[in-house]
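Crash report, auto-generated. Payload:
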Amino acid sequence: MLYYILKRLAAGVITVWFIATATFIAMHSVPGDPLMNDKAVSAEIRKNLERKYGLDRPVHEQYFLFLGNMLKGDFGISFTQQNRKVNDIIRDHFPVSATLGVLAILIASTGGVLWGALTAIYRNRLPDIIIMFLVILGISVPSFVFAALGQLLLVNINKLVGYSLIPVAGWGTIWHMLMPSLVLGLGTMALLTRLMRSSMLEVVNEDYIKTARAKGLSPTRIFFRHQLRNAILPVVTVLGPQIAAITTGGFVVELVFAIPGLGRYFVQAVQQLDYTVIMGTTVFYGAFLVFMVIVVDILYGFIDPRVRLQ
Amino acid sequence: MSEHLLEVTNLGVQFATYGGEVKAVRGVDFYVDKGETLAIVGESGCGKSVTVQSLMGLIPMPPGKITSGSATLNGKEILGLPPKQANRFRGVEIGMIFQDPMTSLNPTMTIGDQISETLMVHRGFSYREAFTRSIELLERTRIPEASRRAKQYPFEFSGGMLQRAMIAQSLACNPAILIADEPTTALDVTIQAQILELMAELQRTEEMSIILITHDLAVVARMADRVAVMYAGQIVETGTVDEIFYESAHPYTVGLKEAMPSNRVSRDKALMPILGSPPDLFSPPKGCGYYARCPHAMKVCKHNLPPSFPISDTEHVARCWLQHEDAPKSDHITQAGR
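Recovered output after restart:
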């Protein structure tokens, strides 16, 4: 198991390096540079600025400089926000995005497993039909629509009770987190519900379920001890990629709910070609995702002994 | 009151499908006594598995439905019990093992835990007690290094070892009857022999009865005390293993025998298959189920279901009009002559 984890971590480092390099190349092949947005810059000032920021050096030199600094854990200073270190931006805003993302994943996975199991139990009966209809809705409606609808719902609830029970936007308390993480997790929850349902229905027909019944176990015990764990396996497999989907989806939700997450800086930086911020946030996000995928894989090993022991 | 350990009378099972009702089992009677082995033989789809699975309450209902009959274990009815009561005899008084041991155990639980589970649920053992007992059970089924093996998962076992573990699991509560549904079909021949040997040995030491479902007559000859031959959802002939093999009274039994490969090299006796396939059980024939394939078929067979005719003063009976006193007498029934 330890060897397995170490192997995955080593592969993770290579992935992050690849992300960094690809982003660097992509970023530099876009026409223009960070200084372009500053109006009324004379050629001389521009030259001085370029020298100051190291933009006058050949690209490959910039690349190695960046890599070296990155290894030291330093992503440099933002081009567009005065005197703001990229590290500070990440430190201030990443926890917000991460909290939102983790909450969304938790809601999505528990919800998906729960609804999926429920639909399988009530297969082809009313609860199944209703939930599966909602699932189609959840998969096909984009998250910003749900975000707006969610806000509308909160506004109406608050109007009904007469005071601000649940804040419509902003960040700070657990009440602020409720709606955005639900909205963010909804699409994934729908997807996982479908997966869990089909997986449950497959497991019901497995021979070992018949064995469990022949052993005289109660349906409840069979459900929890034999069905659920085996049915969850395929769901856990897609959890890794789904975390990536949720994090990127988070940018939009953060915008709608006015959440001070990293997403806003990320998008802004790309628009302004703020080299250091782009590199910093991308590499950091990439590393975080890679790490989460590894965590999911290790989790998988705990559920499925075949992965753990081979 | 019956004096038999298990007595099944007039069992009928149907399945509702899109195509209509499949009458999988049509009035089956048999009994099992203490310590004996009853083999139920017949080709695929003749209702062997459905018969025993309905005894165990393993038929999914719906679409399955037990339409008639009763089954008593020690004089107590076991068909149609409420789920809680059914769980009290399943795995306790009747143990069951299945065809494919590779898929019959939960892949995410250790072998020891799966055996322990039965003991904890039915005997109220603590986990530790149950696990110790599981190791003993594994030892009894001759699994080497049982205490280490108990902590392993099914994927770390070979097929033969898994079937041993399945047997250990089914023996956990000392059942009176072990139902073995084609226990060796998925195993290779040498392992087959070992498993059968183990079952025979355990039967002696545990004094349990075995219901052996198989289509392999070699297995029947080796294991069975009595045999019930099933065809198209009915038992067409039943008797002791010697009677079935040497005094076969139903053309289907004869057909099965002749379709059995032997290792005696003889040029003049080719392997003889039974031509055709079993009847459609959506609308089972009114007469004898074997009519369409029987080389001895008579007019009477087409529309009249043959009753059970006694063949000797023992319990050897056959459902075949040839055994009627007015039937044309021939020395012996063969499959040839077509």
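Post-recovery validation: The first strand of chain B starts at residue 6 and ends at 17.
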